[in-house]
Write a structure and sequence with these properties.
The protein has a single domain, classed as 4-Layer Sandwich (Purple Acid Phosphatase, chain A, domain 2). The longest helix is centred in the middle third of the chain and has 15 residues. The radius of gyration is 16 Å and the shape is globular. By secondary structure, it is an alpha/beta fold. Strands 4-5-8-11-13-12 form a 6-stranded mixed beta sheet, covered by helices on one side. 24% of the residues lie in helices and 28% in strands.
Length: 234
């Protein structure tokens, strides 16, 4: 099994991130599902990216921006080459893609998107992934969670993206990594997709996602590896 460290909602807490990384030195890479900063500038984003790089994992970090990442922070993520927005990243054992931003509600945080904008940011890569000749497990990384899952509960309400839920149902990725809703930490199998919200890394929360060498038969994607995940906290 290949071990992937999953974090989200760092919110500028570099020391907490360092502790989580140190506790997972056998990981292949780290996925960050948004909110590297807490409305920070480019230097703040660069500081978090440097911590991620210095972990020395075999593969570079895979990052999307969150609703608390400002335009300057997002530009830093883009220029770093570690962002998943608008692209497919191929690993020997998995394909990664993603889209950042929070679902627009009050419009008071830095990076909010309408449902249509969230759809347009992610859908082209999902369709492209299905044209790949080599079928690897598909891992989708977003900041906003899909609607109606265990990852988007705020009290008694679901507050995630309906468009993301529709894309998940249509494309059936093996794993969907998200964050944003701090109180909805989960590892939840949702209609064949493993949905993972690791909780806030700023509080020492993270998840470990494992991708196997051999696995089940999926008629839509061919022979794929099994995936599993576990929530952890320092």
């Amino acid at each position: 099994m290949k071990k992937i460290l999953v974090v989200s909602d760092i919110h500028g807490h570099g020391e907490s991130l360092k502790a989580v990384l140190a506790a997972n030195d056998g990981a292949e890479l780290v996925i960050v599902a948004g909110d590297l900063t807490n409305f920070g500038n480019a230097a703040d984003a660069r500081e978090i990216l440097d911590i991620l790089e210095q972990a020395g994992f075999p593969f570079p970090p895979a990052v999307v921006a969150g609703n608390c990442d400002t335009l300057a922070a997002r530009r830093c993520i883009f220029s770093s080459g570690r962002g998943l927005e608008g692209c497919l990243r191929e690993l020997p054992y998995a394909t990664l893609t993603g889209a950042g931003g929070g679902l627009r509600r009050a419009g008071i945080t830095s990076f909010e998107r309408s449902e249509a904008e969230l759809h347009d940011a992610l859908a082209p890569q999902l369709f492209e992934s299905e044209r790949n000749e080599v079928r690897r497990p598909l891992i989708v990384v977003t900041h906003s969670p899909p609607y109606g899952t265990n990852a988007d509960r705020r009290g008694e309400s679901h507050v995630g993206s309906g468009e993301f839920a529709s894309l998940m149902a249509l494309h059936k990725p093996e794993a969907w990594v998200c964050g944003h809703i701090h109180e909805s930490r989960c590892v939840s199998l949702e209609d064949g997709t493993l949905v993972v919200n690791p909780g806030p890394c700023g509080s020492g929360c993270f998840a470990v996602l494992e991708v196997g060498e051999a696995g089940k038969k999926n008629p839509d994607r061919g022979e794929i590896a099994a995936v599993r995940a576990e929530l952890r906290c320092l």
